[in-house]
Give the backbone structure.
Amino acid sequence: MLSFVLKRLASTIPVLLIAITACFFILRLAPGGPFDQERALPPEVLANLRAYYHLDDPLIVQYLRYLGRLAELDLGPSFVTKDFTVARQIGIGLPYTLILGGSAFLLAIFGGVVAGIYGALYHNRAGDWAIAAVAMTGLVVPNFLVAPILQLVFGVRLAWLPVGGWGDGSLRFLLLPVTVLALPHIARISRLMRGSLIETMNSNFIKTATAKGIGRRRVVLKHALRPALTPVVSYLGPAAGYLLTGSIVVEQIFGIPGIGRYFVNAALNRDYGMVLGTVIFYMGLIVLLNLLVDLAYAWLDPKVRQR
Amino acid sequence: MTLYAGKREALEDAFLDRDDEMPRGKPRSVTRDALRRLRANKAAMTAIVVFAIIVIAALIGPYLVPYDYETPDWEAFTAPPSIESGHYFGTDQNGRDLLARTLYGTRVSLLVAVIATTVSVVVGVLYGAVSGFAGGRIDSAMMRFVDVMYALPYILFVILLMVMFGRDVFLLFAAIGLLEWLTMARIVRGQTLSLKEREFVEAARAAGVSSFPIILRHIVPNLLGPVVIYASLTVPEIVITESFLSYLGFGVQEPLTSLGTLISEGTDALGAADWLLLFPGGVLVTMLLSLAFIGDGLRDAFDPKDR
């Protein structure tokens, strides 16, 4: 197990390095600089600014300096909101994004698994078809369309829930954004779960268990569930990544002050320091989450460790 | 093919039972069989008709509607849909006809999807075919790169590119195509690995044809099935990406419009002028649903063992 952990840990390093390098150079290839404004700055001010941020050094020197700072976990300064470093802004936004994404993650797993089990046990009946139809819609309709419709129905017409904002962070405020964020993943997980549980229920060891006279509920929960869960677990890594990027748009729609909003604003303002910092932070987080899911997977399924 | 038609018929008469289902003399190719299976699939055929109607409407519709997409109607600001006024979809806050704007936006969204899908197909097929055909160390290095790219969320790269390309929409979507080829490359590589062991490749090699012409003339034409299927799955993904970017304010800019831009404007007017969201949203969902059914139908048709 230890050698698996180490091997897996080592494999993340080239991924991160390639990602950081690609992002850094893509941003530097962009025409225009962070200090281009509607009214041009006086040349000496511009020269001072450029010197202050070391923008006149050769690109490779800037790149190495950036890597060196990253190694100390310093994401550098923001070029537009000058009073806040990139790390500080991410620190402010992170709790909101984590609560939103984490709740959506749990809801997606729970809702998806329950719907999947139901669909598998009653497959090809009315309930299963209904779930499949809802799942298809959830997969196809993008969240920036689902969200305003839910806002209109539950926020404006019925006035049961707030239309947006964070408020005191209570369930009332979280319900709509978390549902919107989780919906496509509930759909995906329920389909994975349904397929694999149907397959498992047809296998011989389940027939043996049933033949021994074990009740249906016990057969499903004790015998079939665990092997049937493997495709769901392997989807959780990518799902964590999708949730994190999906929350960019959900935060925007519901006005939640998470990292996503800082990121979008930075991109619109061409704040290179901030864009680069947030992208690298997102990627690091996604690589980390994938790593955790892989380790959980290896722990669940000994066969994976051998590879 | 025609050279051998007569010979083929003679052979068939001599050795095979008569096949009444197919016209004699015509070769019974994989593609032909697949198209026959596709025609038998009602859901897919309906989806194709619906999608064709949307495409035709987007192409010729703007010439039939008496209003254009950017000129305000000074008599009607934020007018609800009505038959008498000729604004069948209503107008927006600037008095622009929503039907004309939706038709035009659909056209832009489709155009962008076609550009990006073409780029992704070309890059994916070439990359996958070269990697699979070369094999060995080149293959594993090329696929390792794909793995690394897979681990990173592509929407972040898209937003980075957006910061870089700024307002040039069509260049931007060529760039999205450049990021969307990963799955295509994997599928194509897998197919190539088995194709290159076949006799016709060996024959070509024995005849002295060098590697690259073999890839183009012998490998790529045989990849048609999986490439068509996967391209049909890429189109909706790009449509969503475009809408997502336009929604966040990165994509298509005024006075040009796209479905995503229209949905974003509609969201802002929600509660006051619901039709501004419902019509473009409805078109987007119909389009995505029909594309999903077409993709499923193609997969079933070309890959019958999957059913």
